[in-house]
Amino acid sequence: MPPRYLTRALEPVLKRAAGEFPAVVLTGPRQSGKTTLLTHLFGTSHVYVSLEPPDVRMAAMADPRGFLAMYPPPVIFDEVQYAADLLPYIKERIDVRRSARGQYLLTGSQHLLLMARVTESLAGRAAMLRLLPLSQREALERPDTPLPWDTPRGQSSRRELAYRGLWTSFLRGGYPELVAEPTRDHGLWHASYIQTYLERDVRALRQIGDLTLFQNFLRALASRSGQLLNLTDLARDLGVAVNTAKAWLSVLEATFQVIVLRPYFANVGKRLVKTPKIYFMDTGTLCYLAGLKDPGHAASGPMGGVIFETAVLGEIVKTLVHRGVDPQVYFWRTSSGTEVDLLVDTGKRLIPLEVKLSATPRPAMADPLNTVRYDLGDKAGPGYLIHPGDVRLPLAPGVTALPFADL
Questions:
Q1: CB–CB of 381/396 below 8 Å?
Q2: Which residues contact 175 (CB under 8 A, 6 or more apart)?
Q3: Are 38 and 105 in contact (CB under 8 A)?
Q4: What distance in Å separates the CA atoms of residue 215 and residue 195, rounded to the nearest whole number?
Q5: Band of the pLDDT at 4, cuts 50, 70, 90?
Q6: Phi-psi category of 292—alpha, beta or left, where left has phi over 0 and alpha has psi -120 to 50?
Q7: How far apart are CA 76 and CA 74, in angstroms?
């Protein structure tokens, strides 16, 4: 019996894109549900073709026009990065019937390289969308739940998870197979995922001879998650060149394994050059790399704060990405040392969020949020202190303590 299908928040965005563009490119990490989503929505109207099998890939590369003639639109081409040379020929066929919408639905697991090829070949012809692992709202089958600052009065509670259940969900992560099949051994699943990811994506993007050393890099990065990233120190500890560490980090970013969080500055140029923080996209990946197997140890151990920050950042990023929005999320740090974990730029307001591991919020915890809101002036939106408990209450004017379940 197949696992139950979980409705994704991206569905209406994807349908709209297919109705407006000749092609849609859906990128995201492996196992995030791209194929399932496309076949669920378009399985009856489109032929499905995977480009991952070597014989199919070779046929596509040997005779692109003949291959496309064999699979005329409407068609889904899965894992198109394996035969990216098809893209100019897809453009050729699109231009014959430019007014036809949703002709080609393409998926890929390597965003940066695929994005470059799509920009080169399908500019103006393809919508680019991303599908990440499940957000909590999707896992709880409430994909349309707004973010707290989307509505004047916030939103109603989604407290389906008790404290321990919350940490169990962090330990398992948001990949659809683990959410839809709660009896699956998450440790074995993540071990297999990391190994498959190493063998397929990393070797495809970089010539990495020593995969064990790259695994050590992953674990070292996990131990530094949520901290200002000093690649020089990290490279020295691992015994590799700084340029190698930079290249490996770019692989993780290109395959949606990490989020690069930069400090907020009004000057965009400064944001790009200042030291970022690195977070893993999925809490389950982070916990696996940190060697955590028990919810209690995850919550009370030294990584507890980082895991919770990762969950909060991931929830915001996934929610925005699955709306078809490019998330503008930063952290805030002043020269005097005042810091707020997250700052969300909505385009109209800047929403500061502080993340605390304590389930008992206190007014003093709002001090950094008060400082940042004062510094931002008219640009400041409401501030939120996100915690893992179940208490929702005002901490200061314009600042609310909010359970993670209500995020």
A1: no
A2: 31, 32, 133, 134, 189, 193, 282, 284
A3: yes
A4: 9
A5: confident
A6: beta
A7: 7
Amino acid found at 267: N
pLDDT at residue 286 above 60? yes
Confidence of residue 124 (pLDDT cuts 50, 70, 90): confident
Confidence band, pLDDT 50/70/90 cuts, at residue 208: low
Q: Is the dihedral of CA 166, 172, 176, 179 positive or negative?
A: negative
Domains contained in the chain, CATH given: 11-130 (3.40.50.300), 136-406 (no CATH)
